[in-house]
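Tutorial, part two.
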Amino acid sequence: MLKARKSRQPLSPGTQAYNSAEVARICSVSLRQLQWWDERHVVSPRQDGHKRIYMLDEVVEISVIAELRRKGFSLQKIRRVLRFLQKDMGKRLNDALATSSEVHLLTDGKTIYLEDAPGRIIDLLKNAKQPMFLVCLTDQVKRLTAVTERKPARSETGAAPRKARAV
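Running the prediction step on this input gives:
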């Protein structure tokens, strides 16, 4: 049974849109892969008759998803990440990738992490609600350098001690 597509606002003039062939070429994926991801609601483009129309945000998401697939992440794991971002963070993948974003995706090749605050990282694939807190070594070095660069006390400068005054 086919589900009806959610209705979307029509494209405004001047909005950059891409067809499936362009997206496949840009992201180095097959047309069938794009169709499969649409059918599985991983990335659902707009429809213009039988044509799929992708917005720039969706192209960026497809590019990242394709790269994660090439790095060996299963579509199931990627969908878990997308679901977490949408449900728990109220963001799409593209929002997490923006340079001005307060959240960032990180990977070590085995799992995918979300940095939602400076020094706070969540393992998305384990659905860990308990975040890891990090200590940044460069921040510690900067802090220590700032402390050691303070004005030295008079006793530390090697200045001759004052003579006691005779009364």
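Helices lie at 20-27, 31-39, 56-70, 75-87, 93-97, 137-148. In part three we will examine how such features are distributed along the chain.
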